[in-house]
Amino acid sequence: MHSPFVSILIPAYNEENSIDALVTQILKLYPDAETLVIDDGSGDQTAERARQAGAWVICHGSNRGYGASLKTGLTQAKGEVAVFFDADGEHDPHDIGRLLKAMENADMAVGARADPLRKAFNRVGKRILTRLAELLIQRSIPDLNSGLRAVTRETALKFISKLPDGFSLTTTLTLFMFRNGYRITYLPVRVRPPKSPSRVGMKDFFKTFFRIVKIAKSPCH
What we know:
By secondary structure, the protein is of the alpha/beta class. It contains 8 helices and 7 strands; from the N terminus they run βαβαβαβαβαβααβα. The model has no long low-confidence stretch (mean pLDDT 88).
């Protein structure tokens, strides 16, 4: 099997303190990949610092959302495989290589996190949403909304019109792929304390809850 051209998609919002170091490390580890930072209307120097570090940068004129940033990346990227990589410093870029190796036998490979670093509300909320999704689709899901994953871009684009602009994009993509028979594999990954605070709140929890129910009741396509 040939080595696919890879696009690493980094949605970023006000990450000026860490984005240049992250981009530099990714470019050093994966010089042949396309590294794309989608600046989601930041009010700081995120875009400039990412560009100076060597990334291809696309800027949203306003803050449109995490999912909207990934959708922009998916439509603009050129890689056969797209890697989603959060900009908050939680993930280790070395794990990208593990995901790409797993993609030899999968349509999507996901980094499954342990949750000891997360706030109690986020841990409980994630467990509730994961259990709901598992009950409705009758599948085990080790990490429902991990922001570290590799997916064939062609597959992701099939669902792009159904993917939300908010934080539930990864959850939605996971459920659509499971329900349509795609191969998904999970790899355990270690996480570090994020360098920026989580922006996921109660409103996002309820949006995701009702989205899971809607997807589970909809026909496969």
